[in-house]
Amino acid sequence: MFDSLQSPTSILPQLQLLWNDWYEQADTELAKEVESLLEDPVLQQAVARSLVGSEFFYRQCCRHPEFLQALLRHKDLGLELPAISGDDDLDYRLRLLRNRVTAEMIFRDFAGQWDIPRVCLRLSELAELSICTAMTWHHKQLVVRYGEPRSCEGLAQSMVVLGMGKLGARELNLSSDIDLIFAYPEPGYTDGDQSVENQKFFQKLGQRLIKSLDSINAEGFVFRVDMRLRPYGDSGPLVSHFAALEDYYQTQGREWERYAMVKARPVAGNEVFAAELMELLRPFTYRRYIDFSAIDALREMKALIQRQVRARGLIDNIKLGRGGIREVEFIAQAFQLIRGGREPALRERNLLKLLPLLESDGHIEPGMAEKLTGCYLLLRRTEHALQAYKDQQTQALPNEPDERERLAFALGRDSWVQLDEELVGVRGLVEREFDTVIAPPAEMTMPNIAVEWQGLWASCDDDSSAEENLQTLTENGFKPAQQALDYLRELCQSPMVAALPASSRSRLDHFMPLLLAVAGLQEQPLLVLTRVLPLVRSVLRRSAYLVLINENPAVLSQLVRLCSASPWIAEQLARHPILLDELLDSRRLLAPSTAADIADELRLELLRIDPDDLELQMETLRYFKQSQSLRIAAQEVSGALPLMKVSDSLSWLAEAILQQSLQLAWTQMVEKYGVPAGTSAEDMHFAIIAYGKLGGLELAHGSDLDIVFVHDADAQQSTDGDIRIDNLSFFTRLAQRLIHILQTRTLSGPLYEVDTRLRPSGNSGLLVTSIGAFEKYQRENAWTWEHQALVRTRPVAGSTRLCGAFRQLRLKLLCQSRMSDKLRDEVVNMRNKMRAHLDKSNDKNFDLKHGAGGIVDIEFLVQYAALAWAQTAPSIVRYTDNIRILESLIDAGLMTAKQAGYLIDAYKAYRSEGHRLALQQQPGIVSDDHFTAERKTVQTNWQQLLG
Description:
Pfam families: GlnD_UR_UTase (PF08335), GlnE (PF03710). Residues 450-947 are annotated as: Adenylyl transferase. Its EC number is 2.7.7.89, 2.7.7.42. The protein folds into 5 domains: 128-285, Beta Polymerase, domain 2 (2-Layer Sandwich), CATH 3.30.460.10; 293-443, Nucleotidyltransferases  domain 2 (Four Helix Bundle (Hemerythrin (Met), subunit A)), CATH 1.20.120.330; 447-566, Four Helix Bundle (Hemerythrin (Met), subunit A); 653-813, Beta Polymerase, domain 2 (2-Layer Sandwich), CATH 3.30.460.10; 815-946, Nucleotidyltransferases  domain 2 (Four Helix Bundle (Hemerythrin (Met), subunit A), Up-down Bundle). It contains 41 helices and 14 strands. The strands form 4 sheets. Strands 2, 3, 5, 6 and 7 form a 5-stranded mixed β-sheet that branches. Strands 8, 9, 10, 11 and 12 form a 5-stranded mixed β-sheet that branches. Strands 1-4 form a two-stranded antiparallel ribbon. Strand 9, helix 33 and strand 10 form a beta-alpha-beta unit. Helix 31 crosses helix 33 and helix 38 packs parallel to helix 41 (932-946).
């Protein structure tokens, strides 16, 4: 046997001895069948590698000769346990199963029949089955003695077992320990005659579970159990109730424990309790903000590991050494800890599933996921082969030549030289990528000029250094220098800074010189300092934001540039520091989005969230609005987006949010009341109609939303839920729910302020109007100013069919015949009333919006023209924005290109200045000598059209 096998000469004699030992243990018929099966050279190679590569496999085959036959005949021996008859039988059956599954995994791996992910999954399934079986058995035995553990309210309790590390990620290897944490929901007592506290019950359960898995007998062990990851480690209680766990992680949890929790997964216990526990732990593991402080923790952990590697001579350790398994894990988990709070998809525990997600989201370079996957698989296969030899937990490459050749043969390589070259290559690639992702700050490119500012920041509150510091500030453009020094001193001496822990103070001391250095390069350094310091104060207690900036010099440059350009942006960042994440990628920040892009991005963000988590959905909507608004403002001040596109983008953003908010409100209402008769999720017979700036695609930063709600369902019919209400009541409550979603002030503030007063009959009218009633009101009762408002009206969310019907109705209403003299008088009278109440112009200042010849005059001119001439030229009211209506007037021959062109230019000029002032947080008022030509043009056109 094996004479024709291709293998190193040193392998064959050893292999023949191993085969002869098995042959002697097998009966004649079994031996003949196995020899027949091994005529297949592929199977012969697989058996040879397994016998040579694993003493454990060899011993299992000799103890159970029929096992080799089963492996060759079947593709999968499965996971099955017979009925358990007692404690000893439980321990015996678990060990038999463990030995059989481990030996099978060695064979499937060396044979190339199963890849590493499948092998790891089967080993993880074995661990879960063993834990669940042992825990269920021992729980029942303890209940017989003590009764069922119950909460104070009488609810039966179950212990939840968290699998940590490789078990949590279902990446268990051949000789892994299993890291576990035990927990139970609530304190209380068992309900038996020998009643004990739940704590004692579950402690005994945990002890028995560990013994069944960990103790060694004639059949070996099932899994070595490591409980050191629990709160307080070996000195802490073996099992804790949920509230105690939550308190520990909130008040004492350390960074390495966050790292461990990334892979935590319930592997046994009641599913409801398990889900509750994971929800309690989530805020500790994943921060709401982008948390670059995790990088520091990973660096410290890696530095500690490297010191241990050097001290213990573990350079050839393929797990802990440079370029090893742990570095691949650190690369992935760095992004999980940094971004997992904001990107739920990155909470994936399995590394091989996580790497493609990191690449698709742009966190690692294109192609790197595939490269790291290849490296990881080779390293894990090598780790399995090392552990398969004697069923020992080792990751050290062998030093002896014979052992090296045995390892290479087991892994299907021609020689150790070939395997070693592959390992050197993959470890080099992993090491380089690790250093790219988790490079220490000293290795990163930092502004060298920041060094000279360190002394100034360190001495800014020292009177003896004041003269020197003032000179430095003056030379670098901080004028008046005394004011700049006062700002720095005020911050340095503030009680908040004095109370900072050492780590946060260190981050501040690293950041401030960088800020001063970059600010000193701007045209107005003091202005930059004034606008950025509120942000600094707002993040002092969440100094991970400072780490984000310290770790990413480009973020600081972008921050200074944007804050210098706009106090509105500075205020938004100070109010919502989480938006700093948007500055990480300048290409994404400054790349304009289409309406479809914005809608798709929001839809994907919400798809990542549990549909039952309304609070998180509302926070996601708010963050999305804030981040998109910041991007649009950045594109505006950088010149990447012209004025008209700014308004378009802000309007598209509002539309996307309205559509998704309406969908959320609809889902909640349907859950409570059922579906209104005649409607469906695809056609809810409900639409949101935008007026004013949103209707005219002219939304500005901070604009309210003027909206009206319409429906066309049968108001007399009702919903089909357990709680039935009539359709009109349903739609009214739907609108109220939508307004609640938009206006509720969460930690992130409201989404939008909503104004519904433009609905038929205003505040005295129904909140939701049928489209028939809307038409009747507009024809019979609406004022001229309401028809003017209709010019800038369009549907923005809801039923596609109803939106189309409303567009047709709007055209019919605007194209009605009107008496020109009466229309002219009413438009002029309304304009005069508005000017009397709202115009802030005087002999020194001009109000861009309400002043004579200003924005509102142009809007009234456009609205008058639309209402007066739409009957004969319907095309002029196809659009709702002033610019395109004016262009339509040219196309219809109702206004000369020169006349309309002047109005368009004036309108754009006014709005551009208005936007600029808004970003500077200044009122829309300019000096009276501004825009004189534009104002004259508008007033001339007003006289020509309206007298």
